[in-house]
Amino acid sequence: MTAARRPGEVDGRLVENIVHFTRALRKAGVKVGTAQVENAVCAVEAAGFTHRVDFYHTLRATLINRASDLEIYHQIFAMFWRDPDFLEHMIHMLSPSLRGQPEDTRPKAAERRASDALGDRPERPPPKKDRQEIEIKAHLSWSDTERLRAMDFEQMSASELAEATRAIRTLRLPVPPIRTRRQAPAPHGRHPDIHATLRHSLRRGGEIDRLSTTRPRLRPPDLVALCDISGSMSIYSRMLMHFLHALGQAQDGAWGRIHSFTFGTRLSNVTRALHHKDPDLALEAVGREAQDWRGGTRIGEALERFNKDWSRRVLGRGAVVLLISDGLERGDPDLLNQQAERLALSCRHLIWLNPLLRFDGFAPQAGGIRALLPHVDSFAACHSLDTLADLSSALTGAGHKTRLLAGLDS
Q1: Cα–Cα distance between 40 and 297 in angstroms, integer?
Q2: The organism sits in which domain of life (predicted)?
């Protein structure tokens, strides 16, 4: 990797390492086919490389098809190609005496998944048949997952993320129905139904023997999700997309219409992409629709575009809005303040889900957070399975908002 290579100088050692690298990607959950491996070798042979970054982008262009796999690719590439003598170096690095990490050191996003893929750790034994099955009603309760429930998504390994994804598919977000202005027949309703009473009296020659009544009709509220897919929100965005997909595929009828949008540097409507029944196909379609995945963050401009183009279409029936973002705005805070106020006035309930609440010392110091906080109805975390299971409380309470609003004056 240190010496410059020209086209046509791909030796057998490098080809062998590229093959091992693609196997590591597959082990981490990245879908890489044989044709892609051949294309990667041909691309390196045709383009050559004089710097590490050239080799990085050549392999990425040929091996990665989904935006959700970029972070895994980045971590595995950094670990795999950091030393020319890869095999000897990895044996030393992953020896039992050096493999453990101090408790106070947290790995970066996707680093544990890369470590699992490269470490050749033995596969976990299959679960016993008498193991307690997953059962989720009002809260999560299943065996041997106490640690997983409270674990940050960013710190999970590949196997732990897969297990968390399966658990997310069973989560539900109960919500009380909305009373509409339309009336429905009810034997003990409060409002008399004159037309029904007269129609019934015709059967008795015009004699009224009973008074028909009605009550307000109930319907499930709509849900609109605005999900930040910038670099700092990458892993959380993927897990929340699984959560939204699960809500859309649920048959309990708790929600009416569900609309999903992503934003980074631009707003994308991914509602149709999440209609796929298969979650993998749905997330792959989301990756195609949202071209700004892992980019910058311009929350104010995204909310402005949503308010102008989509607000009247999807918020007209009193929808609940989930704003999923860490609030780290790179644009104008004044614009964000104006558009957040407009959004709050257009929806029934505005819930802000922020993974930064996982930190005990979190305070509203960033300009974007200070601009958004006064306009939301509830403020909750979304960094673990436990926080997602408790989102129903955010529909009825302010969550952490009251405590953080006091910090705005300090």
Answers
A1: 32
A2: Bacteria
| β-bridge mates for residue 351, sequence order | 322, 378
Query: What is the Cα–Cα distance from 99 to 119, expressed in whole angstroms?
Result: 9
Spatial CA neighbour of 299 closest among 261, 327, 271, 259: 327
pLDDT digits (tens, 9 = 90+) for 342-397: 999 999 899 999 888 888 777 777 888 888 888 998 888 888 888 888 887 777 66
pLDDT category of residue 149 using cuts at 50, 70 and 90: confident
Which of 93, 38, 98 has the alpha carbon at shortest distance from 62?
38
Nearest to 140 by CA among 127, 131, 150, 130: 150
The widest CA-to-CA distance across the chain, in whole angstroms, is 103
Q: Are 381 and 353 in contact (CB under 8 A)?
A: yes
Specify the residue for token string 């997909």: 245
- Please report how many Cα atoms fall inside a 13 Å half-sphere around the Cα of residue 82, on the Cβ side: 11
- Print the SS3 string covering 223-290: EEEEEECCHHHHHHHHHHHHHHHHHHHCCCCCCCCEEEEEECCCEEECCCHHHCCCHHHHHHHHHHHC
